[in-house]
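Appendix C: a fully annotated inverse folding record. The material below is reproduced so that readers can follow the format used throughout the book. The structure is listed first as tokens, followed by the designed sequence.
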């Protein structure tokens, strides 16, 4: 079926995974959505910033189990995934392609108010969630780590004082068998309650591999426990612990661009089908993530004092990873290790006056991370390649290592005041002072990027990031706002690079973002329209270039900017029907970028498509014994580059992803049987690339460089379908 016809069917039948506000079965109107985007509970429509919120229940119904799937529903948010230990999020032009301990991400991740914004932390199961909030633009004032592009905030479900639970079993393609559930138990009525949640994912490989085990096998188990203590109305303590174990097998790697430039001997071994592989080292995970956090809320009469204390550990071992994407043992990573330990402490005070005209959030924050990373690398130059011709000897047991200890201190505050001379007009002002310090070592075993080295590195950086917002109630149902917000990402140190660059490091990244927006609820809560227009100006934007020869380059662009429009529409046009349409336009470029001797100024920012949208709907068909629920959605992202050089082969285009499901809901909504499918048209797009021409490309010494360009990388997951059986009590 042509995509246009499929899209028409979706629009006409109005199927969708809606964001949280679109659950309109009860009363057939859009419900109120409560978020904590400003560290206090607020109606989403009262928050003067661009925020998208999703309910955990709806994400579970649509089998959204990780961030790679979530990103399709959020225009303006993008993600590159090379492995579960290497996830790089991008939002409003802010990205961080370097993956070592000496670098911070531009898009932060917070889970139950705890910062986990390292690329090794992004891959975990999304299960038993209350909601997910996506805050776009720099969050330089209220959140525990400054982020320049935006952040994702995940809130898991807390214990309640009612006994209950839920369970779900999923059968699917590739022998998929998943089990997840939760049990809520009140221990002392009104005083002590606990909630235990678990998730187990198991499946055979979805990508057949001609030279070894099939790829994308799933073997991951997670558990979370929460204990809530509320001895009185003024005191509340929540203890959370969690554990994940991942022993999955098979990391896809393929030739994704310029396959015509491959050496003929290698070209004959490559299958151009992105859903088939021929790699000699499949890769195997052994990941363990665990931690504990405690949150105390104490009502002191004049506001609430909140303390959030957390300890987090992430140990990831990835063995026998193919780098070159061919069945030949040219570039192999025999061992990859990430071992990170983190402690954070936040203490804050929040206050909202009885009349709502004054509110305040302020406090202090401390974070300490000790992160060791090792990337092993074996190199056997292939005959006829550039390295083979110039006689580079094999490198067995090569490695890159880096250990960085990061300490961060911050004080922050934000104050909102309803101006007395104009009803409905409010002024918000805030700021954060941050001091970051990084120290440790960077080491290279030698033979790939040059001579071996082991050097000590250290640096510290400070920044003040202010924020000013003016918002005004145009009517009771329409909020307008204008904001200027700054963000800061500290400097750092590259690791898979030359000794000179490792010693030099790179400078902090700073951004000023300007936004004007409208939030509205119209037609008796049947239509919600939120629109934001923004511009962000970056100074010293951090970037990583594609591999040139055997080296990479990490540094600062002189300047970069992005302008855009984000629109979110949700509607209940008739009984039992919900619809939504989200659209984002982004125009981002490097205003000043020089890599080596080449001027790339004017290039587009990586993973920043000009156009992206998603649309769809959900329809309830009442039956005597329950409801038949049809839902579907469609996502599109226009072409974007994956690297700052704007390499012609390093491009991504999501040319229409279609997901759909049909469910029978019965027993007063407590039981559900669903048939679902993701990526039904089996669209493929590139998620990450590396330039490996020096290892794989044809050679012509009359050219500069003398080797032809070849790109290796990863594609998105293939089509998947399954059946879900769930029950809630």
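Designed amino acids, in order:
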């Amino acid at each position: 079926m042509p995509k246009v016809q499929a899209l028409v069917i979706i629009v006409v039948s109005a199927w969708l995974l809606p964001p949280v506000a679109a659950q309109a079965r009860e009363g057939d109107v859009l419900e109120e959505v409560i978020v904590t985007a400003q560290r206090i509970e607020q109606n989403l429509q009262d928050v003067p910033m661009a925020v998208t919120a999703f309910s955990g229940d709806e994400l579970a119904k649509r089998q959204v189990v990780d961030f790679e799937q979530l990103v399709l529903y959020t225009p303006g948010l993008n993600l590159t995934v090379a492995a579960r230990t290497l996830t790089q999020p991008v939002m409003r032009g802010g990205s961080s392609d370097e993956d070592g301990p000496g670098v911070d991400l531009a898009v932060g991740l917070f889970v139950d108010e705890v910062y986990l914004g390292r690329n090794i932390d992004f891959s975990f199961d999304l299960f038993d969630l209350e909601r997910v909030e996506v805050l776009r633009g720099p969050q330089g004032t209220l959140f525990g780590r400054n982020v320049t592009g935006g952040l994702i905030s995940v809130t898991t479900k807390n214990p309640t004082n009612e006994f209950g639970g839920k369970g779900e079993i999923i059968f699917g393609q590739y022998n998929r068998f998943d089990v997840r559930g939760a049990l809520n138990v009140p221990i002392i009525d009104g005083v002590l309650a606990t909630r235990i949640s678990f998730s187990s994912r198991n499946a055979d490989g979805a990508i057949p591999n001609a030279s070894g085990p099939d790829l994308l096998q799933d073997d991951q188990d997670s558990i979370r426990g929460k204990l809530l203590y509320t001895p009185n109305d003024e005191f509340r303590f929540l203890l959370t612990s969690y554990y994940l174990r991942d022993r999955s097998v098979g990391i896809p790697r393929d030739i994704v661009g310029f396959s015509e430039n491959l050496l003929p001997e290698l070209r004959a071994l490559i299958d151009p089908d992105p859903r088939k592989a021929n790699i000699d080292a499949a890769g195997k995970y052994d990941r363990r993530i665990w931690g504990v956090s405690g949150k105390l809320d104490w009502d002191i009469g004049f506001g609430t004092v909140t303390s959030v204390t957390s300890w987090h550990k992430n140990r990831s071992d990835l063995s026998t990873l193919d780098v070159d994407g061919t069945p030949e043992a040219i570039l192999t990573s025999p061992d990859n290790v990430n071992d990170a330990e983190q402690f954070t402490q936040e203490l804050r005070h929040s206050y909202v006056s009885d009349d709502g005209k004054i509110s305040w959030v302020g406090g202090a924050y401390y974070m300490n991370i000790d992160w060791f990373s090792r990337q092993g690398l074996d190199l056997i130059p292939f005959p006829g390649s550039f390295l083979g011709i110039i006689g580079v000897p094999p490198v067995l047991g090569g490695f890159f290592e880096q250990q960085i200890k990061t300490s961060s201190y911050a004080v922050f505050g934000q104050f909102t005041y309803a101006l007395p001379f104009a009803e409905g007009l409010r002024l918000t002002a805030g700021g954060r002072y941050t001091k970051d310090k990084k120290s440790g070592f960077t080491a290279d075993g030698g033979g790939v990027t040059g001579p071996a080295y082991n050097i000590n590195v250290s640096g510290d950086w400070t920044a003040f990031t202010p924020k000013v917002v003016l918002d005004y109630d145009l009517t009771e149902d329409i909020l307008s706002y204008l904001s200027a917000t700054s963000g800061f990402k500290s400097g750092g140190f590259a690791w898979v690079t030359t000794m000179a660059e490792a010693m030099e490091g790179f400078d902090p990244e700073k951004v000023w973002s300007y936004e004007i927006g409208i939030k509205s609820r119209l037609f008796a809560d049947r239509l919600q329209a939120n629109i934001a227009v923004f511009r962000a100006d970056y100074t010293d934007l951090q970037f990583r270039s594609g591999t040139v020869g055997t080296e990479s380059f990490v540094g600062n662009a002189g300047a970069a900017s992005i302008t855009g429009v984000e629109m979110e529409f949700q509607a209940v046009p008739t009984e039992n029907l919900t619809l939504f349409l989200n659209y984002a336009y982004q125009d981002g470029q490097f205003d000043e970028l020089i890599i080596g001797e080449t001027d790339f100024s004017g290039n587009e920012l990586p993973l920043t498509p000009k156009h992206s949208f998603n649309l769809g709907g959900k329809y309830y068909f009442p039956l005597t014994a329950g409801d038949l629920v049809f839902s579907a959605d469609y996502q599109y992202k226009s072409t974007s580059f994956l690297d700052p050089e704007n390499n012609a082969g390093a491009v991504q285009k999501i040319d229409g992803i279609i997901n759909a499901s049909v469910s029978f809901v019965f027993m007063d909504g407590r039981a559900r049987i669903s048939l679902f499918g993701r990526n039904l048209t089996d669209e493929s797009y590139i998620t990450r690339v590396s330039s490996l021409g020096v290892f794989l490309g044809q050679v012509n010494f009359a050219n500069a460089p003398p080797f032809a360009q070849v790109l290796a990388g990863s594609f998105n997951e293939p089509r998947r379908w399954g059946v879900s059986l769930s029950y809630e009590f």
